[in-house]
Amino acid sequence: ANKNWWMYATMAACQKLLRSSLWRLHCSVGLRLGTPALRSNRCFSILSDDEYSPRGPLLTTELSKATIAHKSDHLTPIYRVMDNSGKVLDSSQEPKLSEDSLLKMYRQMVTLEEMDDQLYKAQRMGLISFYMMCSGEEATHFGPAAALELEDMVYAQYREAGVLLWRGFTLDDCMNQCFSNHLDTGKGRQMPVHYGSKELNYQFISSCLSTQMPQASGYAYGLKLAKSKSCVMVYFGDGAAQEGDSHAAMNFAATLKCPIIFMCRNNGYAISTPVEDQYAGDGIVTRGIGYGMEALRVDGNDVLALYNATRHARHVAISEQRPVLIEAFTYRISSHSTSDEQKQYQDMDMVELYGSSLHPIRRLRGYLEQRGLWGREEEEALRGEARAQVRESMQAARRQLKPHIHNLFQDVYDKLPSRLEKQRREMMDHLHKYKDQYPLDLHEQ
Amino acid sequence: MAAARPSSVFQFASSRLLLGRLVEVFAASTTRSGGGSMLSMASRSSSSCVPGLRLPPVSRRFASSSSAPLYTPEPPPVEGEVKRMNLVESIRSAMNIVLEKDPTAVVFGEDVAFGGVFRCSVGLRDKYGKDRVFNTPLSEQGIVAFAIGMATQGSTTVAEIQFADYIHPAFDQFVNEASKYRYRASGTFHCGKLTVRAPYGAVGHGALYHSQSVESYYAHVPGLKVVIPRGPGQAKGLLLSCVRDENPVLFFEPKRLYRAAVEEVPVGDYELPLSKAEVMQEGSDVTVIGYGAQMQVLKNACSLAKEQLGVSCELIDLRTVLPWDEETVIKSVCKTGRAVVSHEDTHTGGFAGEISSTIQEECFLNLEAPVQRVCSWDTPFPLIYEAFYLPDQLRCFEAIKKVVEF
To answer: Considering only CB atoms, which chain B residues are within 8 Å of A291?
Structure first.
């Protein structure tokens, strides 16, 4: 690149050379030889007065031809496999999922829904401090999760617990984290739903939005250099997509050719802010072209469509070592969290609609029933079973002690620095003096 | 969010190669003659500004430029074959060793591919390939986040931020992500393989956006390490330790010493310990504490104190700002009873406050005088006033005098 800089800088300075036929000859020869600088979309292709430049954009004297309109009649279509009743619209698109997989998907979606319901109530009763539900977005968890392999690293935002369940995270694991007890893999350090698992290749959640996105790009680049046959998938919402980190993530991934799938859960809301206040363009998918990245839009309540889209994206990401963006249109039928009340801003008729006939679990059930894999009896049995399992798991988690208070000081660094050790001793001395004033009996001793 | 680069440089350079040369020239010229070089470029023959005004002759030296050296070479910190290197070369030597010995290691940032605006990565791309030594798009938040991700994946990641002044878009990634990564994952995930390097500090003409000291913002973040070397021999060993340390580390390089500091540096692989201050010279009367480029200023001030006041100063280079070696400092101040802390960073909220506070907590009964801080004034870093702004050797000398005469 350095060599070419000198070459063209010198040539640009020599006006006569620019107009000479010798220069024109070079251009036509150079262009055919595919000199890198001329091959790009940048202005170097204007070095020649030729209208036609094989790799660069056409030159035009009409401003409108050089304009990309701010509003288009052509919104990006939405890919789906099933209609709202679960009927497959085009049999060529029906994924080749085993019955076991399909049933596992359904069971886990129902279990997740049940867990959400009970943990929400637990928060309202003061048993846990906080909770976030995934209601209405279950398809965005299980479709992609089933399409990935366990070795694909997942970076999530906070509303993707189903991905973990699919990979083997148990109800107990969820409950232990939400109840911050000593069995929590996070040692009780974070708020509920901030799950993570090294074994299941799922990065720990941080509350910050979009910060995980460029990290995921970097992780993917590292996989590329290590010649791994896996990819990374990073989830983010319609709100998070507006952060600078989101832009950096996509730009880096495309420029540095990272094997990563960007999965946007466009659920219509960022707390109370509807998407109309979030962006003016046609959603997130249209950003793909801006980054030079393939982008797809999918019906986010159609678990089979999500499965197909992710399968495709994974194949592209790994075999071609480039990123793919998927925008999943879904709808958040719960409040943002237990600290939010959706009635203050959401259209409750829409909530009702998406909570019933458009619900992803209902649509998958329709598909399973049409295939003869499910029925009312199975449904009742599953609902009862899920309710009981969740309840039992919660009771067990409630009974466990919280982690030892030494865990307050561990893992800040790989080794405890002397100052922190000093502070720990100071805290212990203080607690020894005032033990009755602190909830020490809740913790492991 | 990275701001425009020095416009004067761009007036002269239309290509990146010329830019690199000019940065060298400016750095060299300013380091040799301090604030004088910029003034000397202005026209002096015509006093068209104010009739009759006698401008001082160019050759007169000021406190900021002075006859005291900008950097006195030190002996190599470890045994072995040595080579004369400046700070840039010593850092490049460290990165070369990292890339050579660790196949997962990568070096990246803005303009790193062609060698970096300060030439720290010259030759590395040719030697190690474009996958391992590369340019990123222009986004500091992206660079640091990408680096966190790569480090988490297990690659040894050395990311460069072009000027510490531009590191701020990455603040969220440092504070909310890198520093808390291990803590929130109970150690199952961490980004310990991350090292972020950035040039910091006064350079003679850097003004608001090419002179900042930013260590105080990051010294406040549990989970990060902050390391600042004072010269080439120290920089190489400390950088190698930073890269190999299993925690995310910020490594700030004093840019005014990039070319000005030259000494015999070991060519081999060696590490200097983190969180271990170095007593550069022993003394009995006053403990003088600092880090980075300020060490030479303090050395000069200590010499002045010896000559003019007969005061014996114990000079301590912290080397690591976070977690810092309070033990060495406390031991010294308990011995001398007097302390002067100095850094280029501004006064209020600067790291000297942390050091002073610790000294008064731990050495109160031994103190003969209040702890002095000598820092830059609490303003943005001004261009034409740099000579008046920085805590130079005379102000440091005055602080030593003050504690001794208290």
So the answer is: none
Q: Cα angle vertex A278, ends A274, A284, to 5°? A: 110
Tokens 């504690």 correspond to B403
- Please tell me the distance from the alpha carbon of residue B93 to that of residue B71, in angstroms, as a whole number: 20
Number of H helices, E strands in chain B: 15, 14
Could you check whether the bond before residue A144 is cis, i.e. omega within 30 degrees of 0?
no
Q: Shortest Cα distance from B222 to chain A (angstroms)?
A: 7
Q: How far apart are CA A444 and CA A422, in angstroms?
A: 21
B18 touches chain A (CB under 8 A): no
Ranges of H-type helices in A321-413: 348-355, 360-370, 376-399
- Which of B148, B153, B225 has its CB closest to that of A223? B153
- Positions of B marked active-site: 140, 210
| pLDDT above 90 for A15 | no
Q: What is the pLDDT of residues A154-174, one digit of tens each?
A: 999 999 999 999 999 999 999
Residue found under tokens 């020239």: B25
Chain B residues inside the 8 Å CB shell of A185: 186, 188
pLDDT of residue A160: 98
Is the model's pLDDT at A423 over the cut of 60?
yes
Kindly report whether the peptide bond that precedes residue B323 is cis, defined as omega within 30 degrees of 0: yes
For A211, which of B106, B176, B190 is closest by C-beta distance?
Answer: B176
Least CA distance to B134: which residue of chain A? A256
Question: How many C-beta atoms lie closer than 10 Å to residue B202's C-beta?
Answer: 25
In the stretch 38-67 of chain B, residues with CB closer than 8 A to chain A read: none
Of B148, B157, B247, the CB nearest to A413: B247
Give residues 75 to 104 of B whose Cβ lies within 8 Å of A.
104
CB contact under 8 Å between B184 and A190, yes or no, is yes
SS3 A266: strand
Is the confidence at residue A43, as pLDDT, over 90? no
Residue B260 is encoded by which pair of tokens? Answer: 């000005």
Q: Do A206 and B15 touch (CB under 8 A)?
A: no
Residue B3: what pLDDT? 44
Chain A residues inside the 8 Å CB shell of B115: none
* Cβ distance of B189 and A198 shorter than 8 Å: yes
DSSP assignments along A31-73, one per residue? HHHT-HHHHSSSGGGGGS--S--SSSPPP-S-GGGG---SS-S
Give me the residues of chain B with pLDDT under 70, please: 1-50, 53, 55-67
Both tokens assigned to B153? 């994946």
* Residue in the structure block whose two tokens are 């801006």: A290
Q: Which of A219, A260, A415, A421 to mutate to test the interface with B (most CBs of B within 10 A)?
A: A219
Q: A73: pLDDT confidence band, cut at 50, 70 and 90? A: confident
- Asked if A300 and A330 touch (Cβ cutoff 8 Å), the reply is yes
Question: What pLDDT score does A74 carry?
Answer: 85
The residue of chain A with its CA nearest to that of B249 is A413
> With pLDDT > 90 as the criterion, what percentage of chain A qualifies?
85
Residue A244 and residue B168: Cα distance in Å, rounded? 13
At residue B350, φ and ψ (nearest 5 deg) are -70, 160
Over residues A336-393, the pLDDT tens digits come to: 999 999 999 999 999 999 999 999 999 999 999 999 999 999 999 999 999 999 999 9
At B376, is the secondary structure helix, strand, or coil? strand
What is the Cα Rg of chain A in Å?
Answer: 27
The separation between CA B56 and the C-alpha centre of its own chain, rounded to angstroms, equals 32
Please answer whether residues A330 and A139 qualify as being in contact, where contact means their C-beta atoms are separated by less than 8 angstroms: yes
| Local structure of residue B177 (DSSP, 8 states) | I
Q: Which helix (H) or strand (E) holds B279?
A: strand B278-281
Cβ contact B149–A219 (<8 Å): yes
CB contact under 8 A, A5 and B16: yes
Nearest-CA distance B38 → chain A (Å): 29
